[in-house]
Amino acid sequence: MLPFIRGGDTVELSKIAPQGPQIGRIYLARMDCGRYAIHRLVCIKQDGMAVLQGDNNPAPDPPVPISNVVAELTYVIRNGRKINPYRGMYWLLTRAWLTTKPLSLRFIGIRKKTLRLVRHILQCIGAFSGVHKS
Fold this sequence. Notes:
Blueprint: E1 10-14, E2 26-30, E3 36-44, E4 49-53, E5 64-65, E6 69-78, E7 81-83, H1 88-132
Antiparallel strand pairs: 1-6, 2-3, 2-6, 3-4, 4-5, 6-7
């Protein structure tokens, strides 16, 4: 759930509200492979399958039964301070990140490709330089 839940953070979980999981909120879910993930609920399909996705993941996780969504994240605890992910600055930053995420991921992809190209060019220059040294 980077960039909002970081290494070293702890989370506080609670029971899911009686009305059930809500799109846009963050949940602990048991994935089909048996591991647990804390991801945002992006869709509930008509067949009762829940689609979750980490905020920094380019694609959603494979759907899981809604019964696999077992708890809701209520707080992120960072440096002893409780942060409510659904209020204040945290919520605004989350909305901004999710809104610009396609652009951010595209920028990251372009950056990676550019770095690979620069490395390749430098390797070619180094190889070319090495050929002409006497």
